């Protein structure tokens, strides 16, 4: 006959076994449905009609044409909308709130605490998502340290709404080349970058930034722009060839990519020779460098609108070269397109006010020679490839994140309708909707 204690032990083991069995049984994840009147797939350029998208958890479960949802299922009705993958902006500054003049920039670095700038950054992230940008690459904090790492963490942990983020933290430049500048040498002032001199310092800075959470490394490769008599936009390069090669080598050794702010002749050439992964801005790129970029798969992120945005203000302050740079930029864009260079969508928002929808870039890309589908690819499939995220984002395909946006109208006819996105889903969660 079993004692009371042995019976208790048997019952306890039975309860534990039952609990373990219950844990081992997977609870089905509910399936939700979206019905799209039209679905644009950027990779093929095809438009499908009457498409049912099933979403399970944070990923797309299936995409079917002329299918019906199960009886009683909840369906988001987007019958009068065009759906497409969540947009990707590969050049943003969430911690910057517009710097049309040098004074705007100085005020943010001198009068706003990093904590306050981080609070403003949460607003930037929310706005990015509301505009339909479900993924962004944030290309440095402009003096706010590693606040972008925490912003990304807060989004990933569900503390605040925002897009998926790849972050570049502090960026790098050399002594005397990046604001804040012009203050008394007796007064130490902050810089918008991590100041790096010498190849060894460059390697150390790469290691440090990666250790604190950088996904990308960013360098400023030129400054002091001027137009030569032959129409070439010239510059003063910042890093030496040895320094730039060391930074790129160290980043690539640690499986991280490098973005180079390079607007003119020497900055671009030195960056291309060093093997960076993307040229940012690229107002002037020599034909030989375009050829090398196409051969090596180096991306071009042109950021057209921000040039238009800042040109008037900087010209009024005496920098007339910015107005000339606009025409040079258009010519470069057309040559890059014809040379087969991979172009990814990036706006430099933060350099202009976050109250402006970054999708304002799309009409400029079309004006400069792209077809609407090419412009859309730049912000979906191309951008996903640049960020090494093509397995998860960029198309609406089973298995990828359910990052889906929609608007009324046809962006293949009028790419400007991308500034009127009124439905945003990220990871299966709806953040904005006018759907019935």
Describe the structure.
There is one protein chain. This protein has about 425 residues and is α/β, with parallel strands linked by helices. The chain folds into 2 domains: about 30-85 and about 395-430, Urease, subunit C, domain 1, CATH 2.30.40.10; about 85-355, Metal-dependent hydrolases (TIM Barrel, Alpha-Beta Barrel), CATH 3.20.20. Helix content is about 35%, strand content about 25%. Strands 3-2-1-4-16-17-18 form a 7-stranded mixed beta sheet, with no helix packed on it. A 4-stranded parallel beta sheet has the order 10-13-14-15. Strand 1 and strand 2 (about 45-55) form a beta hairpin. The protein is globular, with a radius of gyration of 25 Å.
By CATH, the superfamily of the largest domain comes out as Metal-dependent hydrolases
Quick check: average pLDDT? Answer: 93
Number of domains: 2
Distance between the termini: 68 Å
Sheet-strand content, in percent, reads: 15-25%
Which CATH architecture of the largest domain? Alpha-Beta Barrel
Radius of gyration (Å): 25 Å
Main sheet strand line-up: 3-2-1-4-16-17-18
Count of separate DSSP helical elements: 13
Q: Tell me the CATH topology of the largest domain.
A: TIM Barrel
Proportion of residues in helical segments:
25-40%
What gross morphology would you assign?
globular
Unreliable sequence segments: 7-15
Structural class: alpha/beta
CATH class of the largest domain: Alpha Beta
**Major beta sheet summary:** 7 strands, mixed
Number of strands: 18
The oligomeric state is single chain
């Amino acid at each position: 006959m079993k004692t009371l204690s042995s019976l208790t032990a048997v019952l306890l083991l039975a309860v534990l076994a039952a609990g373990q069995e219950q844990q081992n049984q997977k609870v089905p994840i509910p399936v939700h449905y979206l019905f799209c009147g039209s679905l644009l797939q950027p990779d093929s350029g095809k438009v499908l009609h009457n498409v049912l998208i099933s979403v399970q958890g944070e990923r797309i479960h299936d995409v079917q044409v002329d299918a019906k949802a199960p009886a009683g299922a909840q369906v988001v009705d987007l019958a009068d909308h065009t759906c497409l993958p969540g947009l990707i902006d590969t050049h943003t500054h969430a911690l910057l709130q517009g710097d049309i003049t040098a004074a705007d920039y100085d005020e943010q670095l001198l009068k706003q605490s990093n904590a306050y700038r981080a609070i403003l950054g949460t607003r930037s992230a929310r706005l990015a998502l509301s505009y339909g940008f479900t993924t962004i690459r944030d290309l440095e904090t402009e003096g706010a340290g590693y606040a972008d790492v925490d912003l990304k963490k807060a989004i990933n942990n569900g503390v605040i709404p925002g897009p998926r983020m790849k972050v570049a933290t502090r960026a790098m430049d050399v002594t005397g080349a990046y604001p804040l500048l012009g203050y008394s040498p007796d007064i130490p002032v902050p810089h918008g970058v991590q100041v790096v001199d010498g190849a060894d310092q460059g390697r150390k800075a790469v290691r440090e930034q990666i250790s604190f959470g950088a996904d990308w490394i960013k360098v400023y490769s030129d400054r002091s722009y001027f137009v030569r008599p032959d129409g070439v936009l010239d510059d003063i390069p910042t890093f030496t060839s040895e320094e730039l090669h060391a930074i790129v080598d160290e980043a690539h050794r640690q499986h991280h990519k490098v973005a180079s702010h390079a607007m003119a002749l020497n900055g671009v050439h030195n960056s291309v020779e060093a093997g960076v992964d993307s040229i940012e801005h690229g107002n002037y790129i020599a034909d030989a460098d375009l050829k090398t970029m196409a051969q090596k798969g180096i991306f071009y992120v042109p950021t057209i609108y921000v040039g238009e945005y800042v040109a008037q203000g900087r010209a009024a302050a005496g920098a007339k070269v910015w107005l000339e740079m606009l025409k040079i930029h258009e010519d470069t864009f057309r040559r890059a397109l014809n040379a087969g260079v991979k172009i990814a969508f990036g706006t430099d928002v933060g350099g202009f006010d976050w109250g402006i929808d970054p999708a304002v870039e799309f009409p400029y890309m079309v004006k400069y020679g792209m077809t609407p589908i090419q412009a859309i690819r730049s912000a979906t499939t191309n951008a996903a490839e640049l960020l090494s995220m093509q397995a998860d984002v960029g198309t609406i395909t089973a298995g990828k994140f359910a990052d889906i946006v929609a608007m009324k109208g046809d962006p293949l006819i009028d790419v400007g309708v991308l500034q009127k996105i009124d439905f945003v889903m990220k990871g299966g969660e709806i953040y904005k909707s006018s759907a019935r």
